[in-house]
């Protein structure tokens, strides 16, 4: 009876985690296809729209680690509530869009909400839980798979709302952010006692303490060091795929319309679902190390094969293959990291992981952007493919330390 109750409890918490992530990220599907069009409708140039969008990334990076430390200090329930509130404020700013300053403020709130959510719900789910190893991978894969389905459905809803007014795309995100707040109040509880009368100064000091502990672990613990190098490599290698796929398709076929690109975006989301479904099945029987080595091999070879110009359809198939295996890699990385960090500093360490991944992506964006301008997109992609093959060796070395 006790074993059955524990199993049911694990299943219930897994479903709550998946539901919380789904509702929090619902807005990305609604706005994804028409977000840039919304910014342009405010009278911005394309450059100005990109500059304002960059504020979101900057805010997310600036607040990433401090927000994780804050979570470990004041608890996951309060931090999750703050994430929901700031997400609502961001969506409200975009809905009102009185002027550009309000849009900028919305970007700051939006980045802050992502920083607050990043790792908080994940840490709440993992801490004091019985799920480890491949079981965690399968839950993360299921969450990502469901988010992809929501992204596809949301894109059609967002496009339908945009036909009436681009402002309307923010209505459902406002509602979903309120739903997230209600769900946090219902689901998320902190088992650790939090001091109710902590001052801002003491909270700041405690947050700094957690950041120092996290930084010290990364430097001194070889297992953690290798894991964070791995996370940075992932951000670096994946960047060209995220940046260049649509540009490259337009290059090889100038008659390729934006409608076709939106259809390919749906194919990409379906590929993500397939990747997570494959991981859920094979994760029961095959060890992480083997899956990682095979997926990096497929990812690298598929990128190198893009040097063979056999038409648009071949490139689309290769991009979908890359999305399938990269989704599997990302889900494994989340579970792997959680196996080697403790409950007390989990949120801080996950925030460090997001920060390292972002550093990899930003540095890759600069380097590969330069290589693409100086040589070609294919040349930049080829470097990424070679690095992916190199990562197979790194995974082998990393597991020697982990084992």
Automatic annotation (TrEMBL):
Assigned keywords, A-Z: Membrane, Transmembrane, Transmembrane helix, Transport
Gene Ontology CC annotations of this record: plasma membrane
Transmembrane segments: 20-39, 51-69, 81-102, 168-188, 226-247, 259-279, 291-308, 314-337, 349-372, 378-399
Subcellular location per the Swiss-Prot or TrEMBL entry: Cell membrane
Principal location class: membrane
GO MF annotation, one: transmembrane transporter activity
InterPro entries attached to this UniProt entry: MFS (IPR011701), MFS_DHA3_Transporter (IPR053160), MFS_dom (IPR020846), MFS_trans_sf (IPR036259)
Entry keyword annotation includes Ribosomal protein: no
Membrane topology: Multi-pass membrane protein
Ranges for domain Major facilitator superfamily (MFS) profile: 13-403
Pfam family of the protein (one): MFS_1
Cross-referenced PANTHER family: PERMEASE, MAJOR FACILITATOR SUPERFAMILY-RELATED, TRANSPORT PROTEIN-RELATED
Protein name: MFS transporter
């Amino acid at each position: 009876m006790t074993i059955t109750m524990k199993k049911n409890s694990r299943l219930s918490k897994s479903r709550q985690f998946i539901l919380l992530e789904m509702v929090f990220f619902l807005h990305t599907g609604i706005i994804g296809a028409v977000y840039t069009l919304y910014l342009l409708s405010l009278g911005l140039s394309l450059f100005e729209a990109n500059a304002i969008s960059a504020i979101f990334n900057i805010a997310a990076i600036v607040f990433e680690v401090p927000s994780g430390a804050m979570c470990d200090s004041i608890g996951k329930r309060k931090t999750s509530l703050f994430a929901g509130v700031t997400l609502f404020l961001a969506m409200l700013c975009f809905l009102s869009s009185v002027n550009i300053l309000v849009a900028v403020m919305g970007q700051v709130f939006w980045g802050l909400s992502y920083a607050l959510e990043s790792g908080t719900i994940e840490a709440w789910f993992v801490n004091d839980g019985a799920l480890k190893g491949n079981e965690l991978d399968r839950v993360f894969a299921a969450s990502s798979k469901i988010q992809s389905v929501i992204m596809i459905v949301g894109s059609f809803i967002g496009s339908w709302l945009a036909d009436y007014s681009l402002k309307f795309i923010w209505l459902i995100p406002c509602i979903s952010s309120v739903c997230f707040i209600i769900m946090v109040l219902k689901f998320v509880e902190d088992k650790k006692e939090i001091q109710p009368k902590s001052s801002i100064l003491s909270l700041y000091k405690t947050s700094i303490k957690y950041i120092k502990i996290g930084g010290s672990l990364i430097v001194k613990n070889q297992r953690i060091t290798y894991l964070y190098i791995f996370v940075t490599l992932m951000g670096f290698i994946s960047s060209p795929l995220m940046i260049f796929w649509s540009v490259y398709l337009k290059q090889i076929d100038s008659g390729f319309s934006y409608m076709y690109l939106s259809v390919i975006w749906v194919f990409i989301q379906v590929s993500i679902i397939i990747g997570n479904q494959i991981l859920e099945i094979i994760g029961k029987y095959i060890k992480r190390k083997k899956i990682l080595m095979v997926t990096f091999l497929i990812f690298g070879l598929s990128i190198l094969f893009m040097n063979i110009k056999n038409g648009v359809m071949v490139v689309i198939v290769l991009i979908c293959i890359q999305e399938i295996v990269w989704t599997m890699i990302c889900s494994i990385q989340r579970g792997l990291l959680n196996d080697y960090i403790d409950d007390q500093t989990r949120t801080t360490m996950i925030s460090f992981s997001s920060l390292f991944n972002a550093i990899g992506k930003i540095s890759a964006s600069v380097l590969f952007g330069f290589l693409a301008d100086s040589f070609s997109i294919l040349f930049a992609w080829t470097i990424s493919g070679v690095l992916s093959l190199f990562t197979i060796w790194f995974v082998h070395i990393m597991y020697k330390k982990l084992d």
